[in-house]
Amino acid sequence: MLSASSLEPLSISSIDDLMSLPEDELHQHVSTLQTLKIEGCYRLAILPHWIGNLTSLTHLKIGSFPRLKSLPEELGSLGFLQSLSTEDCSSLIALPDCIGSLSSLKHLEIGECPELKSPPEGMRSLTTLKTLEIFDRAYLSERCRREKGEDWPKIAHVIDITIDGELMQKAITVNIM
Asked: Stretch 33-44: mean pLDDT, rounded?
């Protein structure tokens, strides 16, 4: 039995044989979890639905998941989430529309997810989003290009936008003396 009720950061990485995360046991013991990184678990194909119960979570990084096709809708319950990163998820086909419910999200990073064709409509609701980084050199990058991309209107409200290393939009600070 785990006894990690005050656990704040948790990193699960490079466990080649991991096919699923515990459904009942783990989430009962991580109520104070603030940072969760799950990376390099190549056989893992789904994230558990209980991820939405991690109400203290502020940072979530998901990386190197070649079998992950979608993120759970329960992600929208993470009211304190400030940073979300998805990298090297070659089968990820969509971000859930519930992403628009992430009222505290300030930073979103999407990298090397070639099957992800478009940001969800919910992106328009992310009024606290300050930075958006997309690096995939694929279809998503083209659709999100400033003023030319079909999906630019979904992300144009974001203050700082970088696509494939190119700054698309940057906040301008004016000092008045």
From this structure: 90
